[in-house]
Amino acid sequence: MNSTDVVKLVETLWLSTNAKQRREVFGLIRATTIPEEHRELFDALVDNKRSGIRDSSESRVLILIHGIRTDGAWQREVQREFHGIPNLQVHDLGYDVVTGLQLASPFRSGPVNKIVRDIRRLKEEEPLARISVIAHSFGTYIVSRVLEDHPDISFDKIVLCGCLIKRQYPWDRNARAMRKSAILNDVGVRDIWPLIASCTSWGYGSTGRVGFKNAMVTDRYFDYSHSEFFEHGGQHIKKYWRPFFESDEIVPSGWERLPNRAKTGFLTLFAAHQKTGIAATICLAIAAVLIWWLI
Fold it and tell me: Which GO terms describe its molecular function (predicted)?
C-alpha cells in the first residue's frame, strides 16, 4: 500500500459510512490495514475530513495545485507535515495532463476551469472558511488566471514555488483584498524552467528564478532547482511553509542571495530581451525542442 492508496481508501470509507459508524470503522482499518509508515498520513486525512464537518469562521481550507512535471506526490507530503494545525483542512486539487503543445500555446483554459470548479465546490461546502493555496510551476499560472478572470474567488494566503507568473502581474488589482505579507514566492536560483517558459511561449514569466521584486509579494531565495522544494524529506515544507500557516510566521531563507552568486546565463538574457530578432530565433528553436520533449 502506498500513499495514493491511503488517500483513496479514506475517501471511499468516508463516503460509504455514516457518522455513527466512522469512529469504529476508521479505528479498525488503522489498526489492521494501514502500514506503520502511512499511519501519520492516514490520521491527517481523517482529521481533515472531521474538521470539515462544521462550517465556521475559524475554518481554513488549504488547496494544493501541482505542476505538469510533478505527479502530486508532494501534496501527500504537505498533508503529512501540516497534520495537527488547528482548523485547517488540506485538499489536493488536480487536473488532466497538460501536453507540451498546450503548455507553449495560449489555449490552457481546461486546467484553469477545472480548478475553478473545485474551488467553488469547496466554497459551497464551507462558505465561511478562508481559502489559501500552495502552487507549483504550472499551478502558479493557474492561480494567476483564477484571480485575473474570476473576481468572486479570493485567497487568504498564497505560496508560490517554481513560479511561471510574469513580473508585471497586477497583484495590486487582483489581490487587493489580501493582507500584507500574505503572498510568498519561494525562488529557486538554479531553476531553469521559468526562464525557458518565459522565452519560449506566451503568458509566462521567470519569477520562479528571479522573483517579483514587488511590494505585495515576499520573495525568498533558495539554492534549489525546479522541484527541490519537495525533496530532502519534506524539510522545506516543515521549516518554511508550516509556520506560515500555523502562526503567520515568515521564516527567512538560510541562503543569502549575494551579488557574486547571481550569475546571468544566456536564458536569463533571452528572457529579458525575447522580442529581439536573434533571441526570438533561438527561443523558437528551444521551444520546438521543449514541445517535442514534453508531448
Answer: hydrolase activity
Mean pLDDT of 43-49: 80
117-137 residue pLDDT tens: 999 988 887 888 899 999 999
Whether the CB-CB separation of 152 and 129 falls below 8 Å is answered with no
Which set of grid coordinates corresponds to residue 245? 500557516
Give per-residue pLDDT as tens, 86-120.
889 898 887 765 555 555 555 578 889 999 999 99
The CATH classification of domain 54-294, taken from the options 3.30.1490.20, 3.40.50.1820, 3.20.20.30, 3.20.20.450: 3.40.50.1820
Closest CA to 39 of 69, 75, 1, 74: 1
- Our CA angle for 124, 125, 126, nearest 5°, is 95
Helices (H), the chain: 3-16, 19-32, 39-51, 73-81, 100-104, 109-125, 138-149, 171-174, 193-200, 207-210, 235-236, 242-247, 266-272, 277-294
In Å, how far are 35, 109, 203 from 144, measured between CA atoms?
39, 12, 10
* 273 pLDDT higher than 50: no
Beta 60-65 vs 130-136: how paired, if at all? parallel
Rounded CA gap, 217 and 164, in Å? 14
Distance CA 185, CA 159 (A): 6
Question: If pLDDT is split at 50, 70 and 90, which confidence band does 246 have?
Answer: very high
Residue extents of the structural domains in the chain: 1-51, 54-294
Q: What is the identity of the amino acid at 249?
A: E
Reported pTM: 0.73
Say whether pLDDT at 146 is over 90. yes
